[in-house]
Hints:
Elements: E1 21-27, H1 30-50, E2 56-61, H2 64-67, H3 87-101, E3 105-109, H4 112-124, E4 133-137, H5 149-159, E5 162-165, H6 170-175, E6 190-192, H7 196-204, H8 253-267, H9 274-280, E7 288-293, H10 298-320, E8 329-335, H11 337-350, E9 357-361, E10 383-387, H12 390-397, E11 402-406, H13 410-419, H14 427-432, E12 439-441, H15 447-462, H16 472-478, E13 495-496, E14 501-502, E15 505-512, E16 515-523, H17 528-536, H18 540-548, E17 566-572, E18 593-599, H19 602-609
Parallel strand pairs: 1-2, 1-3, 3-4, 4-5, 5-6, 7-8, 7-10, 8-9, 10-11, 11-12
Antiparallel strand pairs: 13-14, 15-16, 17-18
Helix pairs in contact: 3-4, 8-16, 10-11, 10-15
Amino acid sequence: MRRTLLLLSAHSTFAAPRPGRRVYVIAGEASGDAIGAKVLRALAREQRRRGDARELEVRGIGGPLMRATGAFESLFPMHELSVMGLVERRLQDTLADIRAFRPDVVLTIDSKGFAFRVLKALQADPRTRDAVTRMHYVAPSVWAYTHRQRSDRGALARLLHRMFVLLPFEEALFTGGTARSDGGSAGRWCQFVGHPAVEDFLEFHGQFDDDESDAHGRRWDEPVYSGDSGRDTESAQLRVAPGALLDFTMFDPEQLARQAAVFRSLMATRATAAAAQRNALGIPEDAFVICALVGSRENEVAHTTQLMIEGIASFRKAQEATAAPTRQIVVVFPTIAAVETRVKRELQAYAGDAVNALVLTDLSAPERLRLFQQTPFLQSADAAVAVSGTIVTETTLAALPTVVVYRANRLTELLAARLAAVRFVSIPNLLLGRAVVPELLFRECTAANIDAALRRILEEAASPSPAQSPLELPAALSTLTQWTSSGPRCRPMRKCPALHITGPFNIQLVARDNEVKVIERNLRTSGTFPFTSKTFDLNVINLATKAMLGLPVKSVPIALTDIDYVGIKAPQFSFTRLHGADPTLGVEMASAGEVACFGTDMHEAYLKAR
C-alpha cells in the first residue's frame, strides 16, 4: 500500500536543464486541496529521503491545506474557480503563470473541467507540449456512463503522461488497449494509488510509520499493520453481485480475508469518549445525534439542505410523538468555511424550531472536513445524512450509519437517468453492486424518504440483525488501498511512536467491555534471553554482549535432544491493579511478567505456573 504518490520520479525534457526541480500543482476544490497537501508533503519527504540537494520549487493553485505545508502560495484563491464569469480569465492567468514558471511537471487534481482545459492548452502549445510532463490525479468517472468509456479512455491516454486513480478497478479500465501520450507502453501510464479517505482512516488508527525509512530499508509511506490478522479463519470467497465494480474472484481469498480482518477490527474501534466530545459542544450525552453533511459546494448546499431539514424535522416530530420518547434529537451540520454562510442562511430560512441544529465549522481545516482527527465527535454520532461524495466512504469506515442523498437540476437528473451505466453513486455500493448504504437519489430524495431511512436506522440500532457477511464490507473497503506485504501475512508492527519504542517489542493488554489497559511493554527479547539462558544453562546475555561489541564469540552447540525436560515461559499478571479481580490464587506481580517453569512434559511445566 502506498500512502500517497511520489512525483519526483516523473521525468520531463527541457531544452536547458536547471539545477532545481519545479512542480506546478492545481487543485480546484476542497477534496483536491486535501490531496494536494499530501502530495506536497510527499515531495518534500521523498527529496529528503533521497538526500537530493537540488531546490524543489512548487507553485500553482490550491487551498488552505496546501498553503499550510509552508512551501506553497496559491496564484489566486481556489474558490474563484467556481465563480461564474471568472473562470476564463483565471484560465489565461494560470497558463501565463505556467509558461513563466517553466515547471518540470504539471499535476492537476480532480476539478476535471478546469484541469483538462489547462492540460489541453499545454499540449497544444509548442512551447510546453514536450517540455512539461502532464499528470492528473483522480480519474473522471467514465465507468459511470454508457457513452464515455471507450472515447474518454483514448483521449485521456493521448492527453496525459501519467494518471493516478483512486479505485482499484480503474487502472485496468484505463490501460486496456490504450497507448501512452509519450508513446511508451500502456501498462503504467495509469496507476492505482489508493483512496484518500482510506489513507486518513489508516493514519488515524496509527497504521503508518512516520519515519522516512528503517534499518530494513522500508519506505516511510508503507503501512505498519498492528495485530495478527493472519489467524482469521473466515472465508473471503465473497459473492459478486450483478453490476459490482469490484470482482472478488480476482483476489487471493486468504490474503483478502486477512485484509478484511484488519479493516473490520479498525472499523469496530468507535470513539469511546463520546461524553467528553458531546459535552464540549453542549450536546446531551444521551442525545440521538444526526450529522447532516450537506456537501462542500454551493450547488450541493442549495439543492439538499432544505430537504435534509424537512426530513429530519419529520423524523424528530414522529419520535417525540411516540408513547415514551427518551432521547433528544440533535442535528450537527459539520461544514467548511467556503459554504458556512450558505448553510446558516438555509437553516435560518427553513429550520426554525423544527430542528435543534448546531453548525460546526472546523477552523483548523477550513477547506476539509477531517472526520477522524479534527472532528472525532462524528465517530460517536448515531446517524448521518450525507450528500454523495468522499464523506460517505469516511462515514462507512467510521461505522456510522449513513443515508446518502443527492439532488441536482432537472436536466442533469434526466441525463443521468438516461446515460448512467451504474445503479449507485457511493463507493461502498459501487464496489459490492448492492445498497449496503441506503441511497436516495434525484426524485427519490424527498423529505419523506429521508424520514423513513432515519427510522430504519433507529430501529436497527434498537434490534440489530446479523450482517449477511461480516467480512464483506471490510473486504471491499480494504481494496481501496495498496498492500505491500509480499508474504502470506500482513506486516507486523515495527514501531509504536506513542510509547517511544522502536524495533521489535511486546505489549500486553487487558480488555473488558470498552476499557483497555496496557499492563506491560518491553523489548521482545528482554524476557527471552534469561529464559533461554536458564533452559539451556547457557549465558546467552554474555554471548550477545560480545557480539554487539565486535568481540570474538565461540560457536556454542545446542541440541534440544540433550535435555530431558521441557521449559515454558508463562505470563503472570498484577491482579490487584485490575478493578474487581481476585488475586488470591495468583502470583502477585508489581507489574506484569513471566515465570520460567520446567517439567517432564509441557503439561507438567505449565501446571507449575498456575
